[in-house]
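Supplementary Note 3. Input sequence used for the single-chain structure prediction.
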Amino acid sequence: MPAAAAETGEARGRIEFAGVSKAYGTARAVDSISLDIPAATYCCLLGPSGCGKTTSLRMLAGHEIATAGDILLDGLDVTRLPPARRGTAMMFQNYALFPHLSVQENVAFSLRMRGEPRMTRLAQARAMLRVVEMERFAERLPAQLSGGQQQRVALARALITRPAALLLDEPLSALDPFLRLRVRTELKKLQKSLGISFVHVTHSQDEALALADKVVLMNVGRIEQQGTAEEVFTRPRTPFVARFIGGHNVIDLGDRMVAVRTDRVALQRGEATGPTSRAATVKAAEYAGNGFSVQLVDDRDGELIALVPEEEFRARPFGEGERVTVSWAPDQMHVLEQGSA
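The predicted structure, written as discrete structure tokens, is reproduced below.
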């Protein structure tokens, strides 16, 4: 295994953001974020476009310089170091492979720039291609590879510098859905075997929940919530988190706002009774693979979704315009903090 962590058994890649901001004139792309990513962690920076996740990644890489605050990697202050001296490597969204160089020469390129002897750098490149299962394609040109294969080459090229942290900017967005599932499994497996941190920017909730040891959900330049995938999904902190992470209804009870999972609400025909039920009208019903997603509007103009098991829905379908009662058990409510909507 080529990474130093694999050779020594020592986990690397502890990352700390301490009050980090990035401003462009009067606009703040990142607003005083503090974040601690333990060594050998797969961390996903998640959020909508313009939330500050890519700017945060670029500051960690050294492609943007923080306006304020400090960034540390394994205890070293890297805030103003050039990218080559940080101990990070970045895999860009477009892969940026050299079309005239072979796969092996692409992977070896950074070692060539360091002045490594040709035989040494090519041997290291072939070893890294073996790690990403691309050794048999070593003599091909990038144009002779599929998109998924090009991505593996870009990954090997980033890892050959033996970074403490690998930074990935939406690495799966260009792949078809089937290949995306396969590659994300391989990324997770590779991160664990190397013993370094991966910091992965994505706007896909499913991707973050599947991959991350730590999810950092950002909104308008700030961290809205951070924690394990299970913590963020099952205990969203604010209405924004509940809506963005998906699978939840956000319900205003008057004295408090709560989140209830879409698979934990029930639909009945009849009048609503009690504080944990609402009269509503069916807008639409869509097949969701694991059931039917029934979209509703309650009598307070709130939008709700109920995930109804397939057998139950097919036995008595709910039709557009039908009046129903939406209900949930009190212990299925999760109280939200007042925050971003």
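The longest helix spans residues 177-194. Residues 250-335 form a domain with the OB fold (Dihydrolipoamide Acetyltransferase, E2P) fold (CATH 2.40.50.100).
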